[in-house]
Amino acid sequence: MMGKLIVCAVALLVTMAAAQVPEYIKQCKRSDPELETCLKNSLHHLKPYLAKGIPEIKLPSVEPFIMDTLSLQLTGGPQGYRINLKNMEVFGASNFTVKALKLSEGSKPFEARLTIPKLLIHAKYTSSGVLIIIPASGAGDFDAVFDGVTADVKGRVSFNEKPTGTHMRVETLDLNLAIKKPRLSVSKIFNNNRILTEATNLFLKENGNEVLRALQPQLQKKLSAEFSGIANQ
């Protein structure tokens, strides 16, 4: 997703000696005084290819972007309300705009800022504990809508010469997300018990920002690890 996009921008710099340039790459020259603007345009050119995936470089589609598991403790105490999200699918990552891009200088990392108007998340949901004095152990579907997403990315890359050409490796990648409006809901839980479902959704509606704050550190860490792994394939 966001980090992977920036890695692609850096990768553009090592493709310029290729005999045949793939259609998904819009070339930029190191000598271009507007290099960062060129790279922004190159990233925007990549959007439809990221949505579909690029099999020749083993880059999977980001629609949806797949994640594994997140666990959250949302209330305290021995019977605190806890949820687990599995088989997470994230939609909307390819609809990004690069607002700022600063390439690495010496020991300084590259930096970028991207915006995405909306991200949708669907996952399988399990819960345990007590919620608003009601036992709330169950399973079902979890959905989230994140409006107004801003992603700030920092990272370092290294380049190594090999017989097959110049290879890039992502050494570090840090991601920070800011989300203007989270909307969270669950369905098909507690054997479709209407009262428990409504109580859970009321909690998620009234505490959406708090749930997001609990979710965000894990989400950012997992995304950074996923992006680094994909980029280094």
Automatic annotation (TrEMBL):
PANTHER family: PROTEIN TAKEOUT-LIKE PROTEIN (PTHR11008), RE70318P (PTHR11008:SF41). One of its GO terms (cellular component) is extracellular space. One of its GO terms (biological process) is circadian rhythm. InterPro entries: Haemolymph_juvenile_hormone-bd (IPR010562), To_sf (IPR038606). Pfam families: JHBP. Residues 1-19 form the signal peptide. This is Circadian clock-controlled protein.
